[in-house]
Specification:
Layout: E1 2-10, E2 14-18, E3 21-31, E4 39-45, H1 48-52, E5 59-71, E6 74-86
Antiparallel strand pairs: 1-3, 1-5, 2-3, 3-4, 5-6
Length: 128
């Protein structure tokens, strides 16, 4: 999943110690550029904080995983950024644009709308 937005705030880095060692997390507040803008709080973990080098005021596309979990009868949702694409230079995932030639092109859907998935063939069916 992904969204486009402008970074309107950067929260302080949070640090802690877990059973697997030290961890770091930084949250960013984005505002989408839609008719009715939405605010999204998304987080980056570990070394990606330095690698992405997200700055306030930047417009970018964030590729995210959304995860919800229940704790004591309440539900909590995290939006974790795993790659960024800067609007100005096509930079994907914090890797400079010149190095993106090593990666296959990413499809962002066609201009005519979402692509349809072909119907499954007999070979695609599960045995149960």
């Amino acid at each position: 999943m992904e969204f486009k937005g402008k970074v309107i705030d950067i929260l302080p880095v949070e640090k802690g110690q877990g059973k697997n060692g030290e961890w770091r997390k930084q949250s960013y507040i984005f505002e989408t550029q839609e008719q009715y803008p939405k605010k999204i709080c998304a987080e980056v973990w570990g070394d990606k904080i330095d690698g992405f080098n997200i700055k306030q005021g930047e417009e970018l596309t964030a590729k995210v995983n959304i995860d919800s979990r229940e704790y004591n009868g309440k539900w909590y949702t995290n939006v974790k950024i795993w790659a960024v694409e800067r609007a100005s230079d096509g930079n994907v995932g914090g890797v400079p644009n010149s190095q993106n030639d090593n990666y296959p092109p990413q499809s962002s859907g066609s201009a005519s709308g979402p692509q349809e998935t072909p119907p499954p063939s007999e070979d695609d069916e599960l045995p149960f």
